[in-house]
């Protein structure tokens, strides 16, 4: 567009110049004009060439200015805006999932793949009616509100899986209606400063024969020249359409290009040469956009970019730890191995973890995301919304709310009615824990929210002062070194709870340790939805009961979330959702942590946060300036006889020892007095 309009000023300048020359010549004798024709023509040509060169230079300059605003390019192992010359940008976001390519395991359909869906609906209802039904699905699955949700998550990128099934017409040209929906998607993202990665999930001939390629009948892309030419043409048309668009982060050539069974091992023999064909075809049209190359599955499968002369590329990996879906230790080892593999490959290219989940273990989510951040890797979770799939979706619905369509039996009216229910606001619920976790990692804000509120407040880390601990019935509380739990090199303080007796549920006044806040009298937890703390439990996998006490002595109790139960022999962060605590959350004066199983439990770093992953940034001075209000515990009187009366454990033991010593002394005196009285009485009787 810029190149075409850029010639208009050039034409105008040339016309003005020609008019001026003619006007000047009109004042000269005819013979002089004739004699000057040759030299004038040469001068005109020279001026025209100079003007053209100048105009082209301006066009190039304009192009650079356009690319220079938000346009991303790779610079070594990082991405930079301003066409690769600006600030480092780390992409953090999600995949938009089943909008263009339905997968029955997470979408409201029983179809095995997109190809079958289209064919079956067309056969049953005709092409026009089938496309109307599919449009109903697409127009409700993603709406304008969804882009606001993405912005609320602080995401700066969305990976958009696309499909040739609804993108290409019978002649292999881009369909205007589908392209218009893509443009709408890109424009909505642009309004919110969100980049878009165009990801070819379903290519002609299928690149893997999986349901997410839209075709489970097999993979023929790497053996079918016609399918390859169609795929190349598709990308060239998209590149022509989106070149210069700074909202497009890049072109993701082929999602998980496994090929057929024979082409999967060794991987790359047929895939990499076709990657190069696609790369060269796109570069002939769009020299600027990043091209993403999707490994299957690890860095070791990819070549050094210099082998093919690839420039301005991202290497993309998908990480799913299938053999440890509920084992945080296995999942962490899996992530650590990914880091080692990347370091071993040593490629000087940015990394995108284009798809991943850590299933239902939030400790593993936090560990993975922190690892990605430490290495500067970009990431997009799989996926934005799902039906009944837990932590696979940031938003989830239930099958009762969004029932699956039976493409073989449901009437057209029933299908339309079911697919009309798919609006996120109407039928899906926010996966609160995952939402808050991702929002924290996606945010560049590390200490305060936009309205100035703290995102995390320290309650007690046992480093500032010696707290006066108390213990409930069947419990002993004491301050110890963290080395006692883990034999760590660095010494730090922690608290230890020892529980005795038969297994039974703890209460607000039994089988627990009672911890006051550090420095201040109370902590205002308004607006902070979580209590997080580190724990070390040798038995592992034990939910803990947490009780909050407000300034009036009112208590509220809840067990720690099953998604973050502690692992044996490891310091773990766990959490409690306190958003519904029906006490005065503006003044929390005590936290009690209890367990129903006898054993030893260690605790450290208690904080109130607005997400599972947030950490306090307060200084000691800030804490001293925020003393809070004083309160009084009223429900502990019933357990006073079995508590330490507000003393530390050692003080309590000394107090108990002194009590027994005084009691024994008193009893001895009483016995001596009694014996003396008895002897005196006997003496009087003898005298009588």
What descriptive keywords fit this protein?
688 residues; alpha/beta; 8-stranded parallel barrel; 6-stranded antiparallel beta sheet; disordered N terminus
Strand content: 15-25%
Q: Number of DSSP helices?
A: 19
Intertermini distance: 134 Å
> Regions with pLDDT < 50 over 5+ consecutive residues?
1-65, 445-451, 637-656
Number of β-strand runs: 25
Assign the structural class, choosing from mainly alpha, mainly beta, alpha/beta, alpha+beta, or little secondary structure: alpha/beta
Describe the protein in words:
With 688 residues, the chain is of the alpha/beta class. 38% of the residues lie in helices and 19% in strands. The protein contains 19 helices and 25 strands. The strands form five sheets. An eight-stranded parallel beta barrel has the order 4-5-6-7-8-9-10-11, surrounded by four helices. Strands 15, 17, 18, 20, 23 and 25 form a six-stranded antiparallel β-sheet that branches. A five-stranded antiparallel β-sheet has the order 16-19-24-21-22, with no helix packed on it. Strand 8, helix 11 (305-308) and strand 9 (313-319) form a beta-alpha-beta unit. The radius of gyration is 35 Å and the shape is elongated. Residues 1-65, 445-451 and 637-656 have low confidence and may be disordered.
